[in-house]
């Protein structure tokens, strides 16, 4: 007794005909073989387009986030004081720098990973991807330590202002 895929989809998943068509499209698309033969010049051109798109996205996103951050800074200034607002501002700046560096390095490492996978295999591609991704992790950790270190230097001497460091985490 075999498995009847159409009957299983209809009976067990309880999805309609439109959803069934979508499932069939995705399943058939997964069986299409995509050619992986490309030159280094083609890979570089594609990588440049991906990188440009990512940077344009980041610029657009950061413009919108800046408006939100200004609203939060004003609210924190009047609600918790200038120290917490300053800590939030530093946290937002550190987070933004880490995000920018991470996106920049990830889009540059992407093409290197694809070329390594195509020419040298999965092991080398994993190695390239790991080191490309480690830049983001190290950047986040270093920006966090940098920001908390600065705030601790300025606010730790006074028991009234040490609480302002928690604004950094909100940023």
Could you tell me the mean pLDDT? 76
Number of strands: 0
Separate helix tally: 6
Q: Main sheet, how many strands, which sense, barrel?
A: none
H and E order: HHHHHH
Instruction: Catalogue the unreliable spans.
Output: 1-6, 8-13, 29-35
First-residue to last-residue Cα separation? 59 Å
| Structural class by helix and strand composition | mainly alpha
Structural Rg: 24 Å
Give a verbal description of the structure.
By secondary structure, this protein is mainly alpha-helical. The chain is 82% helix and 0% strand. It has six helices and no strands. Helix 3 packs antiparallel against helix 4 and helix 4 packs antiparallel against helix 5. It is elongated and about 60 Å long.
């Amino acid at each position: 007794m075999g498995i009847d895929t159409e009957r299983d989809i209809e009976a067990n998943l309880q999805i309609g005909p439109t959803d069934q068509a979508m499932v069939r499209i995705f399943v058939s698309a997964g069986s299409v073989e995509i050619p992986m033969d490309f030159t280094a010049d083609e890979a570089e051109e594609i990588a440049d387009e991906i990188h440009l798109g990512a940077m344009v996205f980041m610029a657009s996103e950061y413009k919108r986030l800046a408006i939100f951050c200004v609203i939060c800074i004003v609210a924190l200034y009047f609600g918790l004081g200038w120290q917490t607002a300053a800590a939030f501002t530093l946290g937002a700046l550190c987070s933004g720098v880490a995000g920018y560096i991470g996106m920049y390095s990830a889009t540059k490492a992407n093409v290197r990973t694809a070329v390594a996978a195509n020419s040298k295999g999965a092991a080398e591609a994993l190695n390239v991807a790991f080191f490309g991704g480690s830049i983001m992790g190290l950047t986040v950790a270093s920006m966090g330590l940098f920001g908390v270190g600065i705030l601790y230097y300025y606010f730790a001497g006074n028991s009234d202002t040490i609480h302002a460091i928690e604004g950094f985490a909100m940023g």
